[in-house]
């Protein structure tokens, strides 16, 4: 009996030992370069600027009369330079909820003659319309980015939206092109991307999906001609998170010749009713936020499956034109201004979300981080003449290598990040090959405490050199402040070893890494 017990103990001990070793070796990625065929649209890396808080006024726009902060026509030069460094492909404006109360003719002509309105959605402040259509579209030219205009469907009219399209896009002789020229702009801007309302299920009118689908059809009809010869890209107001019936109803009821994209909005948070501090959060709150961020994968897969039923050729894009982290505002700031700090947690959100979009680039062809300056998960924060770049900014700067590159499909086995009884995949990844033949792999380890070792196998491809960059910090709660603006910034990453067609990587806790292979 003793001998049998010893044998059983030996077998069990050996099994547990091998199980532990297997668990340690579980992190493995296989890249399949020969299966590469899908382009990762640069428009996945878009941004969002709403008339909300200090995003436009005291953010982008400080006024032409400002002599303290260097600017071009009232737009901060340092913000322009920072965003050009990100290669931002598109910028959405003027909302958001604000879009469905915005009447574009209030924002053209001499600024002294422009009427004021009350921004009822965001803080109840007076909007003087000093930043309007010309100001925004000229700023997009400075940024070398494509404008994405959100049209007013809820409180506007079909004629109003049709006139706006003609005002900014038509070079011939018409009432609207004459008005544009009278306001100082001869040639049209040729705006491609147009939202037809925003969050029609909520602040855009609390509509039911079948009602909105009919309204959309009407508005979209008068934005272009029979054949859409002007090639406008019309984006329908899409679902709130997991409202799959909304997507089903729109796909079923909107003719293919009237729609180019359908939106989706999803924000990562602890809980919607109790979002918690942007900086003073516990590991439990961090875990909940990451669980919410990773939910984006399920949303993209399920909404895409519905779209596939009606659009198997994937001609209609899934446009995630609002995404990011949402927390309570910074103490002492206007609750309606949505100003929050930006920590390593936000770098994790950005990294895993962009990996999801990259890996589903067949259907996800446009997205917009909310928002660019001083609002929600901003890439830039300002304070008078000071400007800082957030951890989110640095992740997008590292990830810009994926813009218009060709997606490399991959399979991933990852250990889990466990907290209490809950578990999440610890690692996230995406990969692409650019026009110069350089392969980039973006990796995220969301584990709050544990370093993860990772093996990357590359099928049928050999490389000679490897280099890397990393964004992380000592603590999850770390952030760049106006007193310490460079606490978090990209650094050289040296813990990746290339051996033939295999890479061994050591990923620190809560880190984002980009590898370049040549």
Report what the structure shows.
With 518 residues, the chain is an alpha/beta fold. The chain folds into two domains: 28-35 and 410-517, Golgi alpha-mannosidase II (Immunoglobulin-like, Sandwich), CATH 2.60.40.1180; 40-405, TIM Barrel (Alpha-Beta Barrel). 27% of the residues lie in helices and 25% in strands. The chain is built from ten helices and 27 strands. Strands 2-5-8-9-10-11-12-13 form an eight-stranded parallel β-barrel, surrounded by five helices. A six-stranded antiparallel sheet has the order 16-20-21-27-23-24, covered by helices on one side. Strands 17-1-22-26-25 form a five-stranded mixed sheet, with no helix packed on it. The longest helix has 28 residues, at 283-310.
Write a compact overview of the structure shown.
It is an enzyme of class 3 (hydrolase). InterPro entries: Alpha-L-AF_C, ASD1_cat, GH, Glyco_hydro_b. With 518 residues, the protein is of the alpha/beta class.
List the topology elements:
Blueprint: H1 2-24, E1 28-31, E2 46-48, E3 71-72, E4 75-76, H2 77-85, E5 90-93, E6 117-119, E7 125-127, H3 133-143, E8 146-151, H4 158-169, H5 175-182, E9 193-196, H6 209-221, E10 233-240, H7 244-253, E11 261-268, H8 283-310, E12 317-325, H9 344-359, E13 364-369, E14 380-383, E15 386-389, H10 391-399, E16 406-407, E17 410-413, E18 416-419, E19 422-425, E20 427-433, E21 439-445, E22 452-458, E23 466-471, E24 491-492, E25 496-499, E26 502-507, E27 511-517
Parallel strand pairs: 1-22, 2-5, 2-13, 5-8, 8-9, 9-10, 10-11, 11-12, 12-13
Antiparallel strand pairs: 1-17, 3-4, 6-7, 14-15, 16-20, 18-19, 20-21, 21-27, 22-26, 23-24, 23-27, 25-26
Helix pairs in contact: 4-5, 6-7, 7-8, 8-9, 9-10
């Amino acid at each position: 009996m003793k001998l049998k017990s010893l044998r059983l103990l030996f077998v069990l001990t050996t099994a547990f030992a091998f199980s532990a070793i297997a668990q340690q070796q579980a992190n493995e990625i296989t890249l399949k370069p020969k299966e590469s065929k899908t382009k990762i649209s640069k428009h996945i890396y878009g941004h969002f600027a709403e008339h909300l808080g200090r995003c436009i006024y005291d953010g982008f726009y400080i006024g032409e009369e400002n002599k303290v902060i260097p600017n071009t026509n009232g737009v901060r030069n340092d913000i322009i330079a920072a965003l050009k460094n990100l290669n931002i492909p598109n910028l959405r404006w003027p909302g958001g909820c604000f879009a469905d109360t915005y009447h574009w003719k209030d924002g053209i002509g001499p600024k002294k003659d422009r009427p004021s309105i009350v921004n009822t959605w965001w803080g109840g402040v007076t909007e003087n319309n000093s930043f309007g259509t010309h100001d925004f579209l000229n700023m997009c030219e400075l940024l070398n980015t494509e404008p994405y205009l959100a049209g007013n469907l809820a409180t506007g009219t079909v004629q109003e939206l049709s006139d706006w399209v003609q005002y900014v896009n038509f070079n011939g002789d018409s009432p609207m092109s004459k008005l544009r020229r009278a306001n100082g702009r001869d040639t049209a801007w040729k705006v491609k991307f147009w939202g037809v309302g925003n969050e029609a299920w909520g602040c855009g009118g609390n509509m039911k999906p079948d009602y909105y689908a009919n309204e959309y059809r009407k508005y979209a009809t008068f934005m272009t001609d029979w054949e859409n010869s002007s090639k406008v890209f019309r984006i329908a107001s899409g679902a709130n998170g997991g409202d799959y019936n909304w997507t089903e109803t729109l796909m079923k009821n909107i003719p293919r010749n009237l729609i180019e994209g359908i939106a989706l909005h999803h924000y990562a948070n602890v809980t919607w009713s109790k979002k918690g501090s942007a900086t003073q959060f516990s590991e439990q709150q961090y875990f909940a936020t990451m669980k919410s961020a990773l939910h984006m994968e399920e949303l993209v897969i399920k909404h895409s499956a519905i779209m596939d039923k009606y659009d198997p050729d994937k001609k209609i894009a899934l446009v995630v034109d609002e995404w990011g982290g949402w927390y309570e505002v910074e103490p002492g700031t206007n609750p309606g201004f949505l100003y929050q700090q930006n920590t390593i947690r936000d770098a994790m959100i950005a990294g895993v979300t962009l990996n999801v979009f990259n890996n589903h680039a067949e259907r996800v062809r446009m997205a917009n981080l909310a928002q660019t300056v001083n609002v929600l998960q901003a890439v830039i924060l300002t304070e008078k003449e000071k400007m800082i770049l957030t951890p989110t900014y640095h992740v997008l700067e590292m990830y810009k290598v994926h813009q218009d590159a060709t997606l490399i499909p991959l399979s991933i086995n990852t250990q889990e990040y466990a907290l209490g009884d809950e578990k999440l995949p610890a690692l996230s990844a995406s990969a692409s090959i650019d026009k110069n033949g350089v392969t980039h792999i973006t990796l995220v380890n969301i584990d709050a405490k544990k370093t993860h070792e990772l093996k990357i196998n590359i099928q049928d491809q050999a490389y000679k050199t490897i280099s890397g960059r990393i964004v992380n910090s000592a603590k999850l709660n770390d952030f760049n402040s106006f007193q310490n603006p460079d606490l978090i910034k990209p650094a050289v990453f040296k813990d990746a070893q290339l051996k033939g067609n295999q890479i061994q990587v050591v990923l620190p806790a809560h880190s984002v890494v980009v590898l370049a292979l040549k």
